[in-house]
Here is the input.
Amino acid sequence: MEPDAPRHVLAPAAGALASMLLPGSGHLVMRVRRVWSMALLATVDAAVSAVVVAVLVSATNRAGLADLLADQQSFVGLGLGLVAMACTRLWAAADLAWRTRPRHRRGPAVASLVGAALVTAIGVAPLVVAADTIRRTDRAVDDVFADHDAMTAVPTEARPSHAVYDPADGTVDGTAGVTTPATMPPGEWTGPVAPTTTVAPTTTTTLPPIIAEDRVNVLLLGGDAGPGRWSLRTDSMVVVSINPISGDTAMISVPRNLTRIPFPAGTPLHDAYPDGFPEIANAVYPLVRLHPELVPGADDAGAQAIKMGIAQLLGMPIHYYVLVNMAGFVDVVDALGGIDLHVPKTVPSPGNPPGSKHDVPPTIEAGDQHMDGTIALAYARSRKADSDYQRMGRQRCVLAAIARAATPTAVATGITSLVDAFGGAVRTDIPRDRLVEMNALLTAFSTAGGLNAVRTLHLAPPLVDPARWDPLAVRAMVAAVVEPAAPAATSAPVDVPATVLADAC
Here is the structure.
């Protein structure tokens, strides 16, 4: 029998508050029976809470979080633990509120139950929200990352097409359209001229088939498939090459309008296009997706095809790709609270693309700017006043600004919207269980100087003519930037401007 003594109208609320701290403690405080059942409930809750706290403490740094996200069972288990904690508190509070309500006065009884319900809701809500965030994060991570190992795109040997190396003046001559600062008329070179890296001359006529074999090479693709645009075109193609030990990092940008992109010999893609892809490079993804038989075994034939093409072009294996849909890019930037970017000169905006969140001004003014997602996308897309090549530079700077904006505080503040935006905007063939290794790469990258130490190579005029280029010349420049200390096999030295990313932005 439960005691039938009159209870204060606030008794259920007070008991609910105690139950939020430790299920069963309210029953002891209010001297309500069922002590043994509540003791069992408290024991279960304490065990679950201890495990949840231990997991959360282990994930307070980036390495621990990566380890947790990589282990889907543990991550989902964390969410279930939070649900269990919410349920034990809800059960204890509801049981206690019903047993301690004023029994002989209807009005006070209702008021006491409402008060207890409010206290319970306030106490349980954070656990429910946290569990839901874990559920959504798990779904987003599953959507973004692969569930099996990626197919590495491995290049085969390349030979010169129609360029001629002239050892007399140390230049690459002929119809390939490859130029260095030393060969240009005075005043025409607009890029940086220092530091430079010289590829030592040798007597061979081909480069080694593999460059940067001991590095991790990731292809970043910016896919423009927003409203009003046909299919998905990879208008931004940047290879990030990281030494996993030293963290030394180089970035190579490939222009969207590069023609005759090659494919490794012995593949169905090479058999279909022995003289190179007949369209410009940004058409590889959508066209090959229509013919998946050209890339057997690939989950995304278009992405694997562009990996293979870039690998053969640069002479380096491409281990993974990361595809960012530019339409979802807007939400990612907004979820981070915007990005800070220095605009070196006023840029005409491309207008209001379909689906814009607000009007885009006619111009993006020079100077230090804080941009939301819509303005950042307009800045990255604009090419009215210059060309694709300047736009490629702006895109690299926007990516760098996003990396700077993704601080722990910004991520924690916008976690809910960021999870949704990330899941809808990004796809990769990096396996989920490799997240720990990816975090180790980021740590090495940061230790080596981060964005301030990244060398970049822009395969665009005046260095490379996208319509007339020579495979060996391109690979020589890539080797000079990616592995500056290693000699490359070419018949003449090639000087390549090595821009530091932080200086360019």
In short: The CA atoms of residues 258 and 466 lie 4 Å apart. Residues 106-144 form the longest helix (39 residues).
